[in-house]
Write a structure and sequence with these properties.
Layout: E1 2-4, E2 10-12, H1 20-31, H2 37-41, H3 47-72, H4 79-87, H5 89-121, H6 131-151, H7 154-158, H8 161-185, H9 213-218, H10 237-266, H11 278-288, H12 293-329, H13 344-357, H14 360-363, H15 367-399, H16 415-435, H17 447-470
Antiparallel strand pairs: 1-2
Helix pairs in contact: 1-10, 3-10, 3-15, 3-16, 4-5, 4-15, 5-6, 5-12, 5-13, 5-15, 5-17, 6-12, 6-13, 8-10, 8-11, 8-12, 11-12, 12-13, 15-16, 15-17
Length: 479
């Protein structure tokens, strides 16, 4: 059986046991991304606090709960299966639905970097500031990739090299350049790290507009439950899985903070472009005397990684949704497949909706603001899923106490599960609440619109799932 990871990578569950080091590597692979570094860096010294909160109150609790649930219910389906067993078929469907529709916003956020990166590849970086150009690139890139995936197995063609070229090499290059820049220049008086004081390590509660950036940082760990599919495939999961998760999260925290702090030090305060990962490369290479062509090459590499990721997401979630459709939770229209077995109507539906969501770039001319808003929407939908998972983890302890749990939170009793789930529930509720605060980049006249947009988008996504389930018919079930 194959499981589709957050980055679109397929991993197999076989009889061969994973080593502890192997599991750590796989877990880190799910979260390695260079795109979130500008969002992290824009918070200056506060990013240290934000990353620790995201890791300790969000990533670790959800990963540990997911490990228990995935080892007890190892069948394909993941969160949908857990929630279905705990809260019933309706909420299981809502879970699978939200994991599908969140990509409508997530893929717009990912695709928005295509235009920015292309601008640097062709030596026209000013195009990255043009919201209409960004919109055009989102539409062209996603539709071209969608059409290609309907004809070819693009994930198989791209293989793992897309992640190596587009994620790992650029991330390492950014860290190396950042360290070299900091060693040479020290603390940049014009950067985000200037004039250090202890109070800058904590968020400024008098400036509520800065808090929503925490949501963008938490998005780094969105999909943390994916690595739990390997919990049954490692020796002594009770001991080794928590070690793997904790070590992986700690390494990612360190790498992201090194990259985030050095980028915050190099980019002038107030000039960070959240959708432009090439920006810090340009500043650092100019200062260090690295030939400018390096930026063209690194932009092309990241662009390749983005396109490969988009390609993986075109078919990954749709394959899960067609199973939900076959079970009778969606009309027969969504069960149609082409000659290659691809759920063509689901793939085309998601392409149409993604195109509509991308029109946000035509409404909000500030590329960074639009990028952050869409990132926040994606994280809110993920948080609703995590809320359902957390509640399910507790309920299943009482509803199905005799199920074998190879990995279990607490040797006896339910106290540790209540503690871990409680932290997770509190963190996702606070994340959703903070997400409804308009970011500082949103103008005064648009703040009410922002709150309405986030609220309505979330309610519509959940409401549509409930409406579909309420009105489903027995005839929908595939014979």
């Amino acid at each position: 059986m194959c499981i589709k990871g957050k980055k679109g990578k397929q991993v197999s569950q076989g009889s061969k046991k994973l080593s502890l080091v192997g599991l750590i590597g796989i877990t880190m692979a799910f979260f390695g991304t260079v795109r979130s570094v500008p969002t992290l860096a824009s918070t200056g010294w506060t990013q240290i606090f934000y990353m620790l909160i995201a890791a300790c109150a969000f990533a670790l609790p959800i990963a540990l709960m997911s490990a228990e649930l995935s080892t007890a219910w190892p069948e394909e389906g993941g969160p949908q299966v857990w929630v279905k067993n705990a809260l019933g078929e309706k909420w299981g469907f809502v879970t699978s639905w939200l994991l599908w529709v969140q990509m409508f916003f997530g893929m717009v956020m990912v695709a928005s970097t295509v235009g920015v990166l292309l601008g640097y590849v062709i030596n026209k970086p000013e195009l990255g500031e043009n919201s209409l150009f960004i919109l055009a690139m989102i539409l062209i890139s996603y539709w071209v990739i969608t059409i290609l995936n309907l004809k070819f197995d693009m994930v198989k063609i791209a293989g793992d090299w897309g992640a190596v070229i587009g994620v790992y090499i650029p991330f390492i290059a950014l860290v190396v350049l950042g360290i070299a820049y900091t060693v040479k220049n020290g603390i940049n008086p014009a950067g985000y790290l200037a004039d250090f004081s202890v109070d800058k390590l904590l968020p400024d509660l008098s400036d509520l507009g800065s808090l929503p950036t925490l949501t963008g940082i938490i998005f780094i760990f969105a999909g943390v439950e994916i690595s739990s599919v390997h919990a049954n495939n490692i020796d002594n999961p009770k001991k080794n899985y928590p070690i793997a998760v904790i070590v992986s999260v700690l390494i990612l925290v360190v790498f992201n903070l090194v990259a985030g702090l050095t980028v915050a030090n190099s980019v002038p305060a107030g000039e960070m472009n959240l959708a432009n990962i090439t920006q810090p490369f340009v500043i650092m290479t100019e200062d260090l005397g690295v030939p400018a062509i390096f930026n063209n090459i690194i932009s092309l590499m990241i662009l390749i990684g983005v396109l490969v990721q988009l390609s993986a997401w075109v078919l990954g979630p749709s394959k899960s949704m067609v199973k939900v459709a076959d079970e009778g939770n969606l009309p027969p229209f969504f069960q149609k497949r082409n000659k290659q077995g691809i759920p063509i109507n689901i793939v085309l539906t998601q392409a149409v909706v993604i195109s509509i969501v991308s029109l946000l770039y035509a409404v909000i001319p500030d590329v960074s603001a639009a990028f952050l808003i869409i990132t926040i929407t994606t994280t809110i939908l993920y948080c609703v899923v995590y809320l359902l998972i957390s509640i399910s983890a507790i309920k299943l302890r009482y509803k199905m106490p005799d199920i074998t749990r190879p990995f279990r939170l607490g040797a006896k009793g339910n106290g540790l599960m209540w503690f871990v789930s409680g932290i997770a529930i509190l963190s996702v509720v606070l994340t959703i609440a903070v997400s409804l605060i308009p970011p500082a980049s949103v103008g005064e006249s648009q703040r009410v619109i922002y709150v309405i947009y986030q609220t309505v988008a979330t309610l519509i996504m959940v409401g549509v799932a409930l409406l579909i389930y309420k009105n489903k018919k027995d005839s929908w079930k595939k014979k």
